[in-house]
Design goal:
Elements (H helix, E strand, L loop, with lengths): L1 E5 L4 H13 L7 E4 L1 H5 L14 H16 L3 E10 L17 H7 L7 E12 L4 E13 L15 E3 L6 H7 L4 H8 L3 H15 L4 E2 L1
Parallel strand pairs: 1-2, 1-3
Antiparallel strand pairs: 3-4, 4-5, 5-6, 5-7
């Protein structure tokens, strides 16, 4: 069994990771996910500044910082939305500058091109090797004119890929999905792709980069 610390305090993201591993075929006796709350108890986890220039840089920073501090292999990601007509914003500024879906729609002129990409950088750090693995991926699509009013996570209420007619959140509610297809849609495509790639390399021997 391998024990992996998730480098996030988001309860929804933690739940998504656990569900995704199950749907990708990983059993609890093979992979044990540990949260920062479980490791820290009543003590707040260390604060990691996400002020890198890329999603990949922020993901690596978090994985290394948490992995070294709590001496556990750590998986962390940084993901967000890149809108071409906004010169790449919100990008890595998604959380730092309050770029919620409403701000994206308000900042994007009605007649502007609406092409965008959902992006994810994900890193896994192994303290026994003092080295990490990194994977990034993106999904191209468009920003919708009006946000989906149903429950959504992140930007999935305003983003649809080029093959869809509605946002990810609306698609999830109206389609019968199972197995891997559900995992990919539910995690916004790029995060699921990164997770599947890294888990295969973690368990079967991948190439590490010295931290």
């Amino acid at each position: 069994m391998i024990k992996i610390l998730l480098g996030t305090t988001s309860e929804e993201k933690i739940s998504q990771y656990k569900d995704a591993l199950k749907e990708l075929g990983y059993r609890k006796q093979d992979v044990q996910l540990v949260t920062l709350t479980e490791v820290c108890g009543n003590t707040p986890p260390i604060e990691v500044r996400e002020d890198g220039y890329t999603f990949e840089e922020n993901a690596v920073r978090k994985a290394i910082a948490y992995g070294r501090r709590y001496i556990l292999p750590c998986l962390a990601d940084d993901s967000g939305l890149v809108v071409n007509a906004l010169n790449g914003l919100p990008g890595v500024h998604s959380h730092r500058d309050g770029w919620d879906p409403a701000k994206v729609l308000k900042s994007l002129p009605q007649d502007a091109p609406r092409t965008a990409q959902l992006y994810c950088g994900m890193a896994f750090y192994d303290p026994s090797k003092d080295a990490f693995m990194l994977k990034s991926w993106y999904k191209g699509g468009e920003i919708v004119q009006k946000a989906d009013r149903g429950k959504s996570y992140g930007y999935d209420g305003i983003f649809k890929d080029f093959m869809s007619t509605k946002p990810i959140s609306a698609y999830l509610r109206s389609e019968c999905l199972d197995g891997r297809k559900w995992t990919y849609v539910r995690l916004g495509y790029p995060r699921a792709t990164c997770l599947e790639y890294l888990m295969a390399n973690i368990l079967h021997g991948g190439m590490y980069i010295k931290a």
